[in-house]
Design goal:
With 445 residues, this protein is of the alpha/beta class. The protein folds into two domains: 72-221, abc type-2 transporter like fold, CATH 3.40.1710.10; 230-434, no CATH class. The protein has helices at residues 36-39, 43-66, 98-111, 123-131, 145-150, 173-199, 205-210, 234-260, 282-311, 319-344, 348-358, 375-380, 385-398, 407-434; strands spanning 78-84, 116-120, 137-141, 162-167, 216-221, 266-268, 271-273. Strand 6 and strand 7 form a beta hairpin. Helix 10 packs parallel to helix 14 (407-434). The longest helix has 30 residues, at 282-311.
């Protein structure tokens, strides 16, 4: 039988056993091509990405949703000011005026629980506490409160007794709203208690009905912020821009330098290039990446401020201070990303994503107060960068750049984060270099 293979034609090589480790990939033109339908049946190819995707999805869901689902159930020592300015004398048969009775009752009820941390202050101290972001609001008993209540049982009443609830929107709309609800509830309960006392002083049914809830409750802003402040959320979103700028910028610099030095391939659409490998140690590579990160942050920080303030019109004072703080915050995050990538290699981006994004966002305290989150998030807030940076930005934007409003802590944590990034990154690269753990064998040109 005549062979189907022409004379002098080499016998075809058998097709290699398909698998994830099969030679050159599709499109190289240097070997047999493997079809995706063949590779997709290999369990080992699925194993690592499946496990990582599942873990990331599960952890992100638990982290993000776990901190916001039930803030009222997790209240723990939410700071609120309690102000008694009542100067009236006690009502007949009582030893203290109503202002003293109300505030004592509120504090005694609060002392049996840890949900509210009532700060008994005078009005000036309460306003200063709101101006420095130390309290989420205030409940104020006015000077004429007892006198106005006493007048209700006579024909001299001209105004309804009033308790005032002050809000602090600079601490975020949710935190301010929580404090306002708590203050209104406490004021309403005080009104009902007073109504029971007054109802015994008259036998007229109509009058007794009107005295059941005699106290009016007014709500006003205790420490106003600008109209273009996102109801107190611009500090959070601006901080998020800084963190993302450092995180994304650091990873872009990391990938760009590795590509330029020949330690990673470059693909743009169908075009693939590989530069000659530059012989450089891990430590010197990290120095280069960190210098570039700090340099590029000058541009990105400036553009963030131009976009948010100049173009969009975000309310912002102390602009030079805001720029310096923003730049240092972005650099600190970028250096941390470079240190983590240098230490962990390919999974460095995932590790830094959890440190600077996944764990940082729900523990920032900028949207949901840390006092209204589970204990785990309050623990993260001690050291996670988003909380420290948002406190500093909030101080600059809303609280006149006061050091005691979070700015001092923000600067301290930027310094600590920068030192830790430098120490950890260079310690790891120096260790790898001493062990002779080169990244790749240099490729000839």
């Amino acid at each position: 039988m005549t062979s189907a293979i022409p004379p002098n034609t080499p016998e075809p090589e058998p097709e290699p056993e398909p698998g994830p480790s099969t030679g050159p990939g599709p499109g190289t033109g240097t070997g047999p091509q493997v079809r995706a339908t063949t590779l997709v049946r290999h369990a080992k190819l699925w194993l690592v990405p499946t496990i990582l995707c599942a873990l990331v999805s599960l952890l992100l869901s638990l982290l993000y949703m776990g901190g916001i689902l039930s803030p009222n159930d997790h209240l723990d020592e939410l700071p609120i000011a309690l102000v008694n300015e009542d100067q009236g004398g006690p009502l007949p048969g009582q030893r203290e005026n109503l202002g003293k009775q109300i505030t004592d009752e509120i504090v005694s009820v609060g002392s049996s629980r840890t949900t509210i941390d009532w700060h008994r202050l005078d009005l000036a101290a309460a306003q200063d506490a709101m101006a420095s972001g130390k309290v989420f609001g205030a409940l104020v008993v006015p000077k004429d409160f007892t006198a106005s209540v006493a007048a209700l049982t006579t024909n001299r009443a001209t105004v309804r007794p009033t308790l005032t609830v002050l809000t602090n929107p600079g601490l975020g709309s949710l935190g301010s709203s929580l404090a306002s609800q708590i203050n209104q509830s406490a004021a309403h309960q005080a009104s009902l208690t007073i109504g029971k006392q007054l109802a015994t002083t008259t036998a007229v049914p109509t009058t007794r009905l009107l005295l059941t809830d005699p106290v009016a409750i007014t709500t006003r802003i205790g420490h106003p912020i600008g109209r273009h402040s996102g109801l107190g959320l611009t500090a959070f979103y601006y901080t998020l821009l800084l963190v993302l700028g450092g995180f994304i910028g650091g990873n872009l610099v990391n990938a760009g330098v590795d590509t330029a030095l020949g330690y990673a391939d470059s693909e743009l659409g169908p075009w693939h290039t590989r530069h000659p490998t530059v012989p450089i140690s891990r430590t010197q590579t990290l120095v280069l990446k960190m210098l570039m990160t700090a340099g590029i942050a000058l541009l990105t920080t400036t553009l963030v401020m131009v976009a948010t303030i100049a173009i969009l019109g975000m309310d912002a004072d102390h602009i030079p201070m805001l720029w310096i703080f923003s730049y240092c915050a972005t650099v600190a995050v970028g250096l941390g990303v470079q240190a983590i990538n240098a230490a962990f290699g390919g999974i460095g981006q995932l590790v830094s994503m959890f440190i600077f994004i996944a764990l940082a966002l729900p523990s920032s305290g900028a949207t949901v107060p840390l006092e209204a989150t589970p204990a785990f998030y309050r623990f993260l807030g001690i050291f996670e960068p988003m909380h420290q940076l948002s406190s500093g930005v909030r101080s600059i934007l809303y609280f006149d750049a006061r050091a005691d409003a979070g700015l001092a802590r923000g600067w301290i944590m930027i310094a600590v984060g920068t030192v830790l990034a430098l120490a950890f990154g260079f310690a790891m690269t120096h260790y790898y270099d001493r062990r002779g753990l080169r990244r790749l064998t240099p490729q000839p040109e």
